[in-house]
Amino acid sequence: MTAARSPYEAAMGDELDRLHPRLRTYFSAVPAGSVGRGRGTFAVVGTPRRWLWPVLWVLGRQGVLFPVDRRDVPFRVTNRGVTDATGAVAVHAVRSFDFADGSRRMVDAITARGDGLEDRLGHRRRWSARLRATVADGALTMTSTGTALRVGRVHVPLPRAVAPRVTLHESFDESVGRQRVSVVLDSPALGRLYEYTGHFDYEVVADDRPGGRHTDTDLHSDPDPDPDPRRGPRP
């Protein structure tokens, strides 16, 4: 039987071979019965633009972004291979931000769509972004080519004039021997809207959940096997 490929392998093929060897583990398929786990620190999370915080408060309740402007935030990431509603292989990710006054979780599921990737965000997948991925100098960069909001069963594209541009850059920092991630949201008119950037260690280990490969729906109600019971942060 042919092993399932990760969404990145399905969308990018041999181009992933150009990644730094330590990044290949992160972007290759997570085997059934296993889970990818990472721990590290974000040097920066959020935005100082407080006029955005009411919107971010709503997005925070959905598990997308948070109304914060913080430094040196410990975090955990958990990646699982799942199948989505269409039967496609997806990577379900939970990023737990351990703020000083509480832990909050950001969740998403990424799949291959056509010649690119699609990232569905939040506990109920109401937001989505189409992504174009490229490899250069052993690092992976993903840039959004379109974003949409799900209303009922319909995905409504956001006009380019108001849709933020999302850029994710994953690299391996040889100077510290750790993986580095940088995610930024920019607006053509307003500039930098949001970011989180930091370093972490990552490994694939045995999964403590029973049942082998899960569906994305299985993980909606309990997206983190190691939740922090503390309440979320105050802005």
**What is the helix fraction of residues, given as a range?**
under 10%
Shape verdict: globular
| Number of distinct beta strands | 12
CATH architecture: Beta Barrel
Alpha-beta content class? mainly beta
Biggest pleated-sheet summary:
10 strands, antiparallel, barrel
Taken as a percent bin, the fraction of beta residues is over 45%
Q: What average pLDDT do the residues reach?
A: 89
CATH topology: Lipocalin
Q: Helix and strand string, N-terminal first?
A: HHEHEEEEEEEEEEE
State the main characteristics:
235 residues; mainly beta; Lipocalin; 10-stranded antiparallel β-barrel
Overview of this structure, please?
By secondary structure, this protein is mainly beta. It has one domain: Lipocalin (Beta Barrel), CATH 2.40.128. It is built from 3 helices and 12 strands; from the N terminus they run H-H-E-H-E-E-E-E-E-E-E-E-E-E-E. The chain has a 10-stranded antiparallel β-barrel with strand order 1-2-3-4-5-6-7-9-10-11. A hairpin with a 2-residue loop joins strand 3 and strand 4. It is globular. About 5% of the residues have low confidence.
Please summarize what this structure is.
It is built from 3 helices and 12 strands. It is mainly β.
Give the secondary structure arrangement, pairings included:
Elements: H1 7-12, H2 21-27, E1 34-46, H3 53-61, E2 69-83, E3 89-99, E4 102-113, E5 116-121, E6 127-136, E7 139-151, E8 154-157, E9 165-173, E10 178-187, E11 191-206, E12 214-215
Parallel strand pairs: 2-12
Antiparallel strand pairs: 1-2, 1-11, 2-3, 3-4, 4-5, 5-6, 6-7, 7-8, 7-9, 9-10, 10-11
